[in-house]
Amino acid sequence: MAPLFLFPLFGIASSDDVAKSYMDDIIALVLGSFILALAVEHYNIHRRLALKMTSLFYGDRLNPPILLLGICATSMFISMWMHNTPAAVMMIPVATGILQRFPVGDEAQPDVKKFCKAVILGVTYSVAIGGMSTLTGTGVNLILVGMWETYFPEEEPISFSTWFLFGFPLAIIIFFAQWAILCVLYCSKGSAKALSAYLDKSHLRRDLELLGPMSFAEKMVLLDFALLVVLWMTRSITNDVPGWGALFHGHVGDGTVSVMMATLLFIIPSKNKPGEKLMDWNKCKKLHWNIVLLLGAGFAIADGVRTSGLSDVLSANLDFLRSAPFLAIAPLACLISATVTEFTSNNSTTTLVVPLLIQLAEAMKVHPLLLMIPGAIGAQFAFLLPTSTPSNIVGFTTGHITILDMVKTGLPLKIAGVAALSILMPTLGVWVFNTNNNHELFIHENSTRIVM
Fold this sequence. Notes:
With about 450 residues, this protein is an all-alpha fold. It has helices at about 5-10, 15-20, 25-40, 45-60, 65-80, 85-100, 110-135, 140-150, 160-185, 190-195, 200-210, 215-235, 255-265, 290-310, 310-315, 330-340, 345-365, 370-380, 390-395, 405-435, 440-450.
């Protein structure tokens, strides 16, 4: 909250301008998605989904790599629609619930211990990877979009569907790279026999039966969730197919939809008790206001870096990138963020690095998104240390993994992520974000606007 009083006191920005950074369409997008995530958690929908996915991937016989794939895929899917940290908080207990069937300590066989490590690492990293694919998955994507709108207000904003067209294929590639790494490191040939003695499909089926049939409240929350995703995906599709948002002359944003669908949860009855609604403010006590304020601070600082001229000073330290060839732009920007993010939070890295990359794009005469997107995504490659991001801490505190496990798995995963981004950004990214459309003139016009 420091920018709210420091920026006006030091003459960087007025109090009204700073306050607007803490509640715009992007913050509304987060607020609505958080309320929906609390509803999913309250009605235990995430546990039902996890058990069904695990049972589905179990097969007729226990196959540890396939079972691991199911657990990781569930974590990734849930993280696509909510922030990484709440997704990790929801999924790690589900994962540890499955692992509780295995012996611990000296009684556990090496193959069992390795599989436990694979599950916790898989959930931890899958949550981070899933967050890359949608705007609501992580604060980094939201900060990127907010900076794009702040620095280039006259350009087409990055919509939910636009980001999904690029983020989802990237996340899928990195996800399967992660799964392959975990299988090679932690799923030995004898693991199926060792695990079969403790984990049976009947156990999963029994846990699912204990949840009982889906209630009216669960069905309504899922319906609300599905409608929200459909509205997000169809609000703005392409230039030729504008989507339903065109009916409202561009006044409706993704945050509008998010808050509207969250509000419906306070209106629809749960049918559990007379007069009870699907959500009320008592159920919202766990709302992550700290993340909401953190995002607002990120937007405010990014704007302060721009208006104060600090970005011009700091970008001089990245002069060595100006002589880089075109195809090296994405990997270099990604590597810078991927290195810094191990020692600071993902959001802080994005807030610091992306404004510098915008200034650098001006000097290099390239489209800003060719640097901004790799810089933001690189900030999410925080795979080496527990303290790099809160979701890593959630997995680390289970006691199943060590820092060495994270480094051994996270380093090749980080390399795979940088490689995937280096391939997709100059290809798929150019098409999705239209970065080849007169980019030199585009940079010239917007750089003038930045200076003004």
